[in-house]
Design brief:
Blueprint (H helix, E strand, L loop, with lengths): L5 H7 L3 E2 L11 E4 L3 E7 L2 E15 L10 H15 L6 E5 L10 E14 L6 E13 L1
Parallel strand pairs: 1-2
Antiparallel strand pairs: 2-4, 3-4, 4-7, 5-6, 6-7
């Protein structure tokens, strides 16, 4: 979903990676964290709740008036990812059952739970932003 979004492609091209990303990737990029899953049961339905994190990495770049701080770029990338995944209102996604990640027809409800921007390691120009989401899937 994020890799195909034009607003993400403008910021990071096709550099959207799963938890095991390649070594020495070009910045900026987006990484999806390892999900944390828990069972979910409610009256008349079963499913699961999963917490995921989306990470955005950026460093200060440009020259003179065209300089963009890594902090601003990481924050902009993560804002785009949050908006694509439902933002403050959340999102409902119909899963048709043909997806290998969900082999049965179901609905996924995505809720954004928060974001933060941090300096990445000891490099003063490198920043890491992340957003967390709860994803509930019910059949």
């Amino acid at each position: 979903m994020l890799r195909r979004a034009p607003t993400v492609q403008v910021l990071v091209a096709d550099r959207v990676y799963p938890p095991q990303r390649p070594a020495n990737v070009d910045w900026p990029f987006v990484g999806v964290g390892v999900p944390i899953a828990a069972p979910f049961a409610a009256s008349g339905m079963d499913g699961s709740t999963t917490t995921i994190a989306v990470h955005a990495y950026a460093e200060t770049g440009g020259v003179g008036d065209d300089t963009v701080s890594g902090e601003e770029m990481a924050a902009a990338i993560i804002r785009v990812c949050v908006a694509l995944l439902g933002g403050e209102d959340g999102a409902e996604v119909q899963l048709d059952g043909d997806d290998t990640d969900c082999p049965f027809p179901a609905k996924a409800y995505i809720t954004w739970t928060g974001s933060q921007v941090l300096q990445d390691g000891g490099d003063a120009s490198a920043f890491h932003a992340f957003a967390t989401f709860d994803v509930s899937v019910s059949s």
